[in-house]
Amino acid sequence: MATFLADAAQFLPILLRGLGMTLLLTGAALIVSILLGLVWVLMGYSRFALLRWISCTIINVIRGIPIIVQLFCIYFVLPEWGIDLPPFAAGVLGLGLAYSVYQAENFRGGLSSVDKDLVEAGTALGMNWPVLMRRVVLPLGIPAALPSLGNTTIMLLKDSSIASTITIAELTRAGQLLAISTFKNGTVYLLIALLYLAASLPMAAGVRWLERRFARR
Prior knowledge:
This protein has nine helices and no strands. It is mainly alpha-helical.
């Protein structure tokens, strides 16, 4: 135990810098995924069949391709077409795009839970589709989607480790380099697991707090 604590004191500063990059990457990718997810789900609710078809196609295609392959396509293939993104931007775009389809399904589930009588009442009052979505459906549907949104956010935090494959110095990448240089694999990866756990628990608590707050309102 004394050896583990001594090694942990030596390794933690390096791993904490990696954790900072992981949280930054997760936060940026989360914003991208939520914005794109809202776009996909609103297109899916459109009255225009073409927009609904595009939304369904995007969701099915992105969901059917592994995240690591999407990251490789963005980081290694796009430069061949003249679009050269730095690793962090490629990671944010890849993770955000990959998780946008799951966010879209989360939003769809929340919006579907809105009472149809309220929608009909809004329509009877003369609300058009954009106003109805903004004033009735979204304010009621998004809080209903919070539990699944929280789970997806924690999954995104853990899957951010995939970004290590495109040289982003996040927590897993920092740990890999540390393990290679010190041969202390057990200590390093145990610390990585504990840090991921320490980062995910406050997220879960925050989602539960939001659920309780919206429930009171």
